[in-house]
Amino acid sequence: MSGRYRHVLEVHVNKEDMFTCSACDFSHCSSIAEARNHAGTAHPDENACPQSKSGSTSAGALQVVQLFYEAWAHLNKN
User: What are the structural domain ranges in the chain?
Assistant: First the structure.
């Protein structure tokens, strides 16, 4: 994951449950790797896996792109 994408997730989208564990209430705001690591370590026998709300749909991806564009346009408006 790029630093810019992570920044958008942490600062602009700001959803604490962006990535979750399928076996419990663990969540992380910007890293599916953290959720994957948790699931494998905390639930090795439960076939747990990370769940993502980060834009697996085209609408979510467009929202992230729009946030990047708006930030870029704001910085370059002068």
Answer: 3-75
